[in-house]
Amino acid sequence: MRIHCRKIIAALMFTAMAAGLAACGQSGPAPVPAEGPAPMSREGLAPDDQLSAEEVFAQMTTQEKIGLMIVPGMRTWTETAEVQETGESQETGESQETGENQETAEETAAGNGETRETSQEQPQEETPEEVTELNRQIADAFEKYHFGGAVLFEENMEDAEQTAKLTEALQEANAAGGGRSRLLICTDQEGGNAAAFTRGTRTSGSMALAATGDPAQAEAAAGVIGEELKALGITVDLAPDADVLTDPGNDVIGLRAFSDDPETAAQFSAAWQKGLREAGVVSAVKHFPGYGGVSESDPAVMPSVDKSYEEIGECELVPFAACIEDGAEMIVVSHILYPQIEDTAYISRVTGKEITLPASFSHAVISDILRDDLGFEGVVAVDSMEMGPVAENYNKEEAVGMAINAGADLLLVPMDLGSQEQIDKMGQLIEKIEEMAEQGEIGEERIDEAALRILKLKEKYGLLREWNKEGSQERIAAAKAAAGSAAHHQTERAIMEKGVTLLKNEEDILPLDDPENTVILCPGTYHEYAVEFALRRMREEGKLSQDAEIPVVSYLENSEEDVAEAVREADTAIAVSAVYGKDYLDPSAENGRRSALMDRILKEAEESGTKVVLISADLPWDTARFADADAVLAVYGGRGMTSLPEQTSGEGEIISPNIPAAVEALYGAVSPQGKLPVDVYALDRRYRFTDEVLYERGSGLEY
After folding, report:
1. Any idea which of 2-6, 302-306, 343-347, 526-530 has the lowest mean pLDDT?
2. How many helices (H) and strands (E) does the chain have?
């Protein structure tokens, strides 16, 4: 490990962080004894009382402690039916009991169209189905292995009622197997574009929150999200994203970061964490030690940040230190290579060449920096171990062992429970971890330390109480009432209105005083819905004439000539631009079509004398790409709406607040107050970022 003069470097790091802190937390599945786990002694306790973490820990076996450290996912389920030579399907689970998922005796041979008999050695797999309710196999796995929790993804969550029923079923399965604590049910709900549960209140997203200039808005947004997650039965939000966006080409993080300024990111991350905590949900701050400096977005390549410990102490670590100071309870360590900090060699399974260990497997990163230097005492989780580059380059069992020895407590999705085969492999993994502990390859004291730390977190949030199935219907009803409530949407709207950022306003053309002579141009249907929603809401509130007819046209779905004609006929063309990554800026790139069309719109407007107002709906880099627009608004969230909501209150509807806030600002219903939370760099002729700052962080006009 390349860690030298740690005391000196730590001192330098904390000096650099001071400003940020002042401004702001192999043979099969593992066996389970036939009689199951010994029951917990609850003598003298009322049903709502809970044992202490130490009392629960004292009764646990090593295998139970290992299970407690594992938090699997279950995005989809694939039923594999092994077929007899007679063509009859063998029993593989509950689907056969209902006569479903029967396989035929013949299949098409690859490449030649011939048919051949299917035998037991040639299993057939059905198309994966999204897991929105527990099947018997997954329920059995939660009963058997005593997992510490589960991760829910967008595939698992259709709406509030279904999601609440799923979390209830998970807790019930865990309790039925004698689980000694309730599950930590986790999801990624950062807000804005990054929302796994899409049927609730999304809020504006991190960068839009930072544009308000007020960390209290982040706390309020997190409070709304936390209230809804808790009602759904979700106990851990894998948020906030505390990364500092030091590389504008980082499309993986992008709008998920609050800012490219470490102090700003620190203030808003700590505020977000506080809002979640006060709502009764665990905040898992990510992606330690920082993902914002990664420029490589190829999912097949291990991301890397080539910075020294001293350099990240002045930047990347500042938000994490602020969250720790504010009482952080969980931090997620990412699979990022930091070769100047961790240079231990590992032979890649893909290339056969030496690579270094990622932060998630690094003792230097987790134990030395996060624990010793930053003083973090909470639960350390490592990011999903099913991510492509990690799963492909590192042996799963070795990776798990390295992560635990490095100081990890929770292993997020070391394996997805997507089939019976995967469930069996999970059992084998648990068995292997226990074997490695017995042989001294994993320190047993590390397993004990992790288990007790997890139990203490659960104790704090009341998760060591017995599961009470009797309250199920009341909890489901509460979830339906909370998710996407009118009150939450009103808070969401008020926050976003404070984040609308006006960067350019030549000749004070905004606000528009004659809506009749405008046209609004959008990329596609989902953005059109967002625009139409805003126009209808303004009419209902008396902020726009009922008679005002404002055409809304998709420039991706209509012919170029039709779009050009719409521009020529208007006095002012409002162009909504949604740039999701740096490759969208180059008209010759695969994703560059919308930029090419925007160039055509600007050219047509110049020739016809039409004014152009640019709404930068997503990453603000297009404010430099289309700098010739007469006025420029940025709202930092280009996710549209899947349908036009029936109620402008948003009650029970899917609302995206960013684009509607921008549209209302066009006509003076909203006054821009936001300040740019990142520097926007000028582009060269090949649409690459230069060192010239076109719009400085903190820019923002008003009217």
Report:
1. 2-6
2. 23, 26
Confidence (pTM): 0.88
Least confidently predicted of 19-23, 160-164, 298-302, 353-357: 19-23
Helix (H) or strand (E) holding 322: helix 317-325
Q: What is the number of alpha carbons within 13 Å of residue 413 lying toward its C-beta?
A: 23
Where b means 16+ CB within 10 Å and e means fewer, 504-537 reads bbeeebbbbeebeebbbbbbeebbbbbbbbbbeb
Is the bond into 299 cis (omega within 30 degrees of 0)? no
Distance of CA 65 to the CA centre of its chain: 27
* pLDDT of 37 strictly over 80: no
Strand ranges in 589-658 using DSSP code E only, listed in sequence order: 611-616, 631-634
Phi, psi of 349, rounded to the nearest 5 degrees? -70, -20
- 632: three-class secondary structure by DSSP: strand
Cis amide prior to 511 (ω within 30 degrees): yes
Cis peptide before 335 (omega within 30 of 0): no
Taken in order 325, 328, 330, 335, the sign of the CA dihedral is negative
Mean residue pLDDT of the chain comes to 88
Which tokens sit at 229? 């997650």
Q: How far is Cα 244 from Cα 266, in angstroms, rounded to an integer?
A: 9
Q: Which amino acid is at 352?
A: G
Pairing state of beta strands 189-191 and 184-187?
Answer: unpaired
2: its two tokens: 């390349």
**Is there a contact between 99 and 84 (Cβ–Cβ < 8 Å)?**
no
Amino acid at 658: N
Q: How many CA atoms lie within 13 A of 548 on its CB side?
A: 23
Integer Cα distance of 351 and 558 in angstroms? 46
Q: Which amino acid makes up residue 563?
A: V
Cis peptide before 240 (omega within 30 of 0): yes
189-225 in b/e form (b: 16+ CB < 10 A) is bbbbbbbbbebbbbbbbbbbbbbbbbbebbbbbbbbb
Give tens-digit pLDDT for 600-654. 999 999 999 999 999 999 999 999 999 999 999 999 999 889 899 888 888 888 8
CA distances from 191 to 197, 239, 655, 702 (A): 9, 9, 12, 26
Residue 14 CB burial class (10 angstroms; 0-12, 13-18, ≥19): middle
3-state secondary structure of 693: strand
Q: How far is C-alpha 644 from the chain's CA centre? A: 25
Interatomic CA distance for residues 482 and 168, integer angstroms: 16
Rounded average pLDDT over 56-62:
97
Cα separation, 130 vs 138, in Å, equals: 13
